[in-house]
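Table S2 (continued). Query chain:
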Amino acid sequence: MRFADYCGIISDTYHYFRPYLRTASMNYHRGFHSYLWVRGQEFDAYASNPPRRKVDDYVNENYPPEWRERVARFLANTDDFTEERHYFPAQVMELGIDWLKRNRTYRKVFLWLESFDPHEPWDPPPRFDTYTDPAYKGPRLILPMGGNAADWATPEQIRFIRGLYAGECAFVDHCLGWLFDALKDLGYLDNSVIVLLADHGHPLADHGKFLKGGDRLYSELLKVPFMIYAPNLTPRRIKALVQFPDLLPTLFELLGMRNLTELCKGKSFAAVLRGETDTHRRAIICGYHESVDRCIRDETWSYIIRPEGQPDELYNLADDPKETCNLIDEFPEEAQRLARQFGRLWFRHPVTGVKGVQGRYELL
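Corresponding output:
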């Protein structure tokens, strides 16, 4: 069975078309019949000239030269943005809508449409920049740095950055509205599977730091926007635990290609989407390959395994959804139960035992 007659990708995620990323070749567009790149996002090597705007208006005194250079690159890339249609999400969605119109003639199509936003830098159009304090007089910190936010930004600046992020999200949602309207008007909703998915959530100094990172394995990073539409599915919200590898076999099953699910590493959750069950995985494990930290969680508990010398963390997600109260000493058996569900393959270093907060003092 043929998956699609025509496949396209449209994105402003410049990493995809870079000839290399660190040591790995990307060229992600190979295999697609058509590809369209929106240039200039983030630090894309697009504009060669210095920015017309002053970098000092977008950084504070704690930004080192390399971070100032990143801000300068983005400013140069976006100096000519004078209308909302110039901003990256608008460009991506308009190109996507045009592609869907032009390729409606095909019986089966696959479109990978990806907006890099609301990834930082966060610089929403003025009409959507309504979540920041109008009385704020400091620099417009569109690019938060890593590390402890309190070390490089004031509380007022941290609140301002969060407001910029909210405005960026609002603008992306606005542009997605154009896409959803077009899908309906063009008749795609009658016979298509549509997936809305992000690659990760985003820490906003909820636990002290902005940006993603191996040590930030909390809900604000691990929980992602994830919606699936198909004509025969009843809209509802599910609580089942799923992970990224589960998406491909699920799509295969929804498209009548269930025999291909055996080739996948993930596990189809089509039965959950059809309302036949409310559960999928007993627990999930998350972490960066190069990082020691791992997070194992089920529907109630989240256990974060830290490197040697650091206490582990355990949170009751039902009672403490913001993960503020570490219960590792009160319920070590829950951490042990979660850890036993995954073998050594999943850990950078062997897990020798639950490291409580009090235990390191009791053993001295």
